[in-house]
Structures are given as C-alpha cells and as structure tokens.
C-alpha cells in the first residue's frame, strides 16, 4: 500500500465543523445504508465517520456496534483511497483487523471514502458480508452512486451550518443595533444615511423615513457639517485602511433643538469599490451638564477656600445657608463643621457628625477612592478633587453624592483643613440604575420574543398541516356524498369519516384554547373529591380497546384513596399521557400504568416500550410549540400541545411532571400531585 | 381503464382517494409510503402516480426522483400533493421532475380536470 498523506488537521476540523460528531442517528444517512444493504444484497452496511482515533458508525444496519478503533482497520485504508477498496475475503487476508474482532464472521468488505464539500475525506461508506464475494462493475457503480448521495447529505450539513452562522450573526447584529444607547448610522459613498438604529431616531426626534436617504450632515448644526463631510471624503479616498475619527460637535434635532454630541466615524473596507462607513453618535447632554455643575461647584469651593485662607472668618454666609452640603474636614479626617444641608443629606444631627470622621459616613466600597482623593489634595497633586461616591446615612443606607474637596494650607505648606461640598445626586443615580436594568430587561424580552416567534412559526406550519389533513377528509367525503349515489354502507362510512375528522379538528382547537386559558390564568381548577385510581383504570380501559397491538397493565396502590383535585382535568392529563404512550410506540408493546401513595402525595407513572425520546429533546418536550421532530417520527400526527397542557394542569394542582427515557427502549412519564389542595394558590407557571 | 397508483400515509386520505378515483372512473392501487409505491410501480407500471410529499420511509419528492431514474417508469406522469404550507414544497416538485402539484384538500372536480389533462384527455 502506498502511504498517502491526508491533511489530517484539516480533515478533523471539517468533521467538527459539520457537526456530525453526535451519535444521534439521522434518517437521511440511515436511508443510505439501508439502500446500500438492499441494492448490493449484503447484510451489513455502515456509514463510518473517521476522527483522530475512532471510526464512528453514524449509521449502520446489520451490526450493533457503534464504533471501531481506527488504527489498522479497513476503514482507515479505504479512507486513503478515492476509489472503492474491495477485500474479497478479509478474514483470511486481514485476520488482525479490529473489524474482524468486533464483528465476528465478517469475510467480505467493500468501502469507498466520503469527501465533504471542502475536499476532505472524512468517512467511508462500507458494505460487508459473512461470505467471501466480489462486486461487479455495476455494483461498484452503485456503491459509488450511494457515496455521491451521502456526500450530498454532507454538503447539506455544511450548508445548514453556514446558514445557522449567518442567522446568528444577523440576530446578534440586530440585537446590538437595537439595544445600544448610541445612535448608529451607516453611510453610503455619497454621504447619505443608509440605515439607522432605534436609538438614532429617538436621539434626533425624527422618523426613520426622514433620516434614511438624507444627507448625513443634516443631523448636525450647519457650522459642523463641513468638517464631517471632509472626514467622510477622506475615509472614502483611502479604501483598505481602517479609519476612526472622533470629535465633539453640535447635533440638530427634528424640532430644531441643538445638543452636544460626540461623533465617531469608522470605516470598514468590504471590497475594492465598497467601503462601509459607520457613524456612532453619543448624546453628551447629560455629561456636559454634569461637567458644568462640577466646574461650578469646584469654582465655589475654590473661592471659599481662598476666602477662608485670606480671612479668619470660617463662617461665611454661603457656608451655613448653602442649599448644597458643605463641611470642613480636619487634616486627620475629623469633621470640624457641617452645614444644615449636609446634616439633612446624611440624616445625622450636626452634633453627631462633628464627633466623627469623613470615613464614618463613607460606603465601604468607596473608602479607597475617598482616601486617595483627600491625599491628592493634601499633597497638592491636585487643587480640587471631585468624585461621585456613596455615603452612609444614619439608617446605614447608601446615598449617592457628588463630593468636591479643596485644601486650605498653613504658611509652611502643610494641609490645615479641607473644604468639601456634597451635592445630592441620589435620585439621578437611582434613575440611571433603573435605566440600565430596564435596558437589560428589554434585551431579555427581545431574546425571548425571538425564540418564541421561531417556535411559533414552526408551530403554525405544524398545525396548518394537521388542519389541512383533517379538512381534506371532511371536504372530500362531503363532496362525494353530494356528487353521486353510494350504497347505504358507504354513505354511513363516509359520514363516520367526516365525523372523525371533525372531532380531530375540534380536539386540536380545544387543546389550543385550553392551553391559552391556562397560561393566561383564566382557567380555574374545579376542586372536588377525586378517585384517581378510578380515573386511571377508566382511561387505560378506554385505550386498551382502541389498540390491538398494545397490551396494557395497571398496578394501582389502594392507599391512593380519594384526593382533592379537579377530576376532569386529571382525566385529561392521564388521557394525554396514555395516548402519547400508544402513539409513540408504533410497534406495540406493553403500556404500564402505576399509582403509588408517598406520604401526602400520589405518584403516577405511565411506561411504554416505544421509540423513546432523544436526550437533546428531553428538556423541551413540555414546552409549547416544542414538539420534537425527527425523520422517524414526523409522521406521528399531533399538534404538540398535549404535554404543555399536562404540565399546566399538574402544576396548577401544585404538582410536578417529568419524563425519563431511553432511545429505542421506551419512555416513562411520571407526575406527582398532593392529596389535598395546596394552601397557597400556586401560579401556573414560574 | 387507466390505472392510478396513490401513495399517502394518512388512512383517511387513502380511503378518500380510492373512492374519488373510482367515482372518476379509474382503477387504483393505494399504498402508504414511497417505498411501497416504488415496489407496486415495478410490479405493474401504472398510467399515473399521485403521491403525498411528506411520508415515512420514502417521501414523494424522492419517489419522483427514483421513478424518473428508472427507464421503464421514467415517462409515467406524476402528480404530487401536500397538506404542508411550506414554500419549499411549492418549488421543489418541479425540480425533481413531477408533472403537477396540488395543495390539499383536492376537490373531485379539480381532480377530474387535472387527471384528464395529465393523461392526455
């Protein structure tokens, strides 16, 4: 065998990117192995994906093992070849092959490598037999046709991945665009606004329709336009460079009001001709206002310190009557004097304050900043220091204030005392916190909306399909009855068909309405003495006569007795669970229903031997619109409302419902309800 | 009498199509999925195939491709129908080489006309 090198790293990366690593069987591949076994008349066909050390059987028919060691296996050899590898009698020519060890009695092996769209060989489609044989030209062609089919499926996986990435990228972009406080605009080659986000329309108080297509200069005051236009021209004249320009200027609102803004212009090079310009505009109104206030306060403090320095008069009129809190702080931090306003702000009497230090009224998290600020003033690193910090009130509650500190120095240059002012900014800070929280909440709401709207459109197509199928029967048979004479037997049969399909529709509609009523809290439970064992026995009995393929068994605990519950609603729960058990075990089997009393609760279990539930679906089966779909079960009729309804009813009773399952072995649905009505009314959800 | 092969996984619709076709004066073979349809077509090539798109084992689109790939059956007219409202069904039936597409529910009158024109009057 010629050693041929594969791009192993690239191969493994492709394999991972395709996301086929999961062992979950997929009908689209199972179909190919079934076809291979049938068309080539062999008992075993395997689609193996080869990773670093292991051959994973993505799909296999005729063998029960799901993987093989890669080293030394015929799969590894076949992977190296583009054409099919045919070993007519493997047991005699390759006795040490791990395949022979894992699948005793295999003699014949033919496998051809699978190439994914990027050109990497990632797996092998193989057929095997218990007797030595050959493949003729036609059979070799069939194998290679099936390989082409499998490769097309791999291509679909790759495409799905790309599409997912793209969708995620779009969703992310949209979420960011709509949730940032800054205005975002994209600008075209001619300097016109191409698109804007929500914040942009709000900031400039204009409708999106007015802004899009308009010259970007129109959002600025006339005197600032030439500079922005020059920046845009410069950005566009240098394709390929990434550009970033920031400056402060004046914005113009739709109502003519002017306000301070900061514009950042960024360019991103897309292609030779195409440069994407993005402007990020921040509203500086609040920041400018804060700066102005801070400067004002600093000026006052500076003047006071000046006045105090020049005269021995500590009690300037401004001090005691100022609406803003003022204090003199000793060089060691002791509070020497406070005015009324500060005492009010800190909710301490002045007498208490002058026996304490500035740190006693500082929130623990802001101690370091406070100390550093006073130290900077004392050492004359700065003449005035300002910080927004949290103070502690008498009630030990935190309160936001803007602290400004200046120093009064002795002739030798050492600090004598500090003059400080404190402005109450608590309300503003709390409003800011609330704004941040509101934004976060809005973001969560948007995410939730996205999720349910996807689920909803899936649900709509599912229900649409069910409705049309039922309508086909109703309309078709009723049309027939009017079109021609039929025998009385047939007329009766058609009428029955119409009735049954009508019931199917009614059931779907009432399930949807029930669920809506419960989720919106408009449905009340009708509590009464309820014989749960009798409900179980009756429901099971009813279904036992409806299916010939299923056997039923009940194991009811006589201690269950009479409980306090809504008998009709619990009947609905049990019916839904038993009918699901039957529906999802199309090959029949035993449906076992058990009740057990455990203390003050009753546990009911309904166990089947059906298809089981894939582990990735377990978390969502009780959610509305989340009916788990996979190829082998999409033909099971239903709207997916049954289990959400079950959960609603059980939880309204103060109980819980859950499922355990093993794929291919069956599922067990259990619910627990209390024997008496819960004291507190428990909300249906959450 | 022309013979029509019908594949649908819903029992009610199978029964409905049987009566529809009898009423319209056709012979019919009715099966529950694409694989059964393929087998039936091999055993006795029909004059026309009506198939649901969404079926277990082998769906209508794949069935069409398989019939088209078979020399003996490639010329048989194929009418697909579906209760699905997905956009893709409405374009894919052409791609796989079917001759017609009907959204359920089909009507007796509509079916009479469609079949007559597909079977060349």
List the helices and strands and how they pair.
The complex is a heterodimer of chains A (686) and B (121).
Chain A: H1 8-18, H2 27-39, E1 44-50, E2 54-61, E3 67-69, H3 74-80, E4 85-87, H4 90-93, H5 98-102, E5 108-115, E6 121-129, H6 137-179, E7 183-187, E8 193-196, H7 198-204, H8 208-211, H9 225-237, E9 243-252, E10 258-269, E11 275-283, H10 285-310, H11 317-321, E12 325-330, E13 335-338, H12 340-346, H13 350-353, H14 367-378, E14 384-392, E15 398-409, E16 415-424, H15 426-483, H16 488-519, E17 528-531, H17 532-546, E18 550-556, E19 562-565, H18 567-583, E20 589-598, E21 601-607, H19 642-652, E22 656-662, E23 666-674
Helix pairs in contact in A: 2-6, 15-16, 16-19, 17-18, 18-19
Chain B: E1 3-7, H1 11-23, E2 27-31, H2 34-43, E3 48-52, H3 60-69, E4 78-82, H4 87-95, E5 100-103, H5 108-118
Parallel strand pairs in B: 1-2, 1-3, 3-4, 4-5
Helix pairs in contact in B: 2-3
Description of the structure:
- The complex is a heterodimer of chains A (686) and B (121).
- Chain A is an alpha+beta fold and 686 residues long.
- Chain A is 43% helix and 24% strand.
- Chain A has a six-stranded antiparallel beta sheet, sandwiched between helices. In chain A, strands 8-7-11-10-9 form a five-stranded antiparallel beta sheet. A five-stranded antiparallel beta sheet of chain A has the order 13-12-16-15-14, with helices on both faces.
- In chain A, helix 15 (426-483) packs antiparallel against helix 16, helix 17 runs parallel beside helix 18 (567-583) and helix 18 runs antiparallel to helix 19 (642-652).
- The model of chain A is unreliable at 627-635 and 680-686 (pLDDT under 50).
- Chain B is of the alpha/beta class.
- Chain B contains five helices and five strands, in the order E-H-E-H-E-H-E-H-E-H.
- Chain B has helices spanning 11-23, 34-43, 60-69, 87-95, 108-118, and strands spanning 3-7, 27-31, 48-52, 78-82, 100-103.
- In chain B, helix 2 packs parallel to helix 3.
- The longest helix of chain B is centred in the N-terminal third of the chain and has 13 residues, at 11-23.
- Chain B starts with a strand and ends with a helix.
- The mean pLDDT of chain B is 87.
- Chain A binds chain B through residues 31, 461, 464-465, 468-469, 471-473, 475-477, 479-480, 483-484, 490, 494, 497, 500-501, 632, 634-635, 637, and chain B through 9-10, 12-13, 15-16, 19-20, 23, 54-56, 58, 83-86, 103-108.
